[in-house]
Amino acid sequence: MISEELDQNSRNSNSILDSIIYDVDPQTKRTILNVTASMLGEIRQLKEIFKLEKYETSLRRSVYNTMIEIWTILSDLRPEKLAKAYGRISDTDKKLLEPHILKLLETVDEIYQT
Questions:
Q1: DSSP assignment of 7-61, as one string?
Q2: In the structure, what pLDDT confidence band is assigned to residue 10 with cuts at 50, 70 and 90?
Q3: Which of 8, 58, 63, 89 is most buried (most C-beta within 10 Å)?
Q4: Which tens digit of pLDDT belongs to each residue from 46-97?
């Protein structure tokens, strides 16, 4: 995963709520890639020595697990839960926030049902 991230993020990346600043210089990148390649070589040797089988993961299961995490976060963002965790939320903020959270929760449910 580290190697993939270093290769994919050769420039800054921005999404809606976060950004990744590519602050790894070429020499550091080469060093990290060499170290991780060495580690992977050791892991391959262990796999062969102990005749370990490859663990397979369903893409569908992985997507569903991510959707469950998103659903949990969204549920925690509902105004009543936010109020319990952080104190009272104004009625104006509640009216503004709740429709968006509910819509997102419905969308997650739709995806989960497919």
A1: HH-SS-EE-SS-EE-----HHHHHHHHHHHHHHHHHHHHHHHHTTPPPPP--HHH
A2: low
A3: 89
A4: 999 999 999 999 999 999 999 999 999 999 999 999 999 999 999 999 999 9
Contact 69, 112 (CB under 8 A): no
Helix, strand, coil % over all residues of the chain, rounded to 5: 70, 5, 25
User: For the chain, what are the domain ranges?
Assistant: 2-49, 59-113
> Does the structure show a pLDDT above 90 at 22?
no
Average pLDDT, the chain: 91
- The torsion defined by the Cα of 75, 103, 64 and 1, in degrees rounded to 10, comes to -80
Rounded distance, CA 5 to CA 29, Å?
Answer: 11
Q: Is 50 exposed, middle or buried (0-12, 13-18, 19+ CB in 10 A)?
A: exposed
Amino acid at position 104, single letter: L
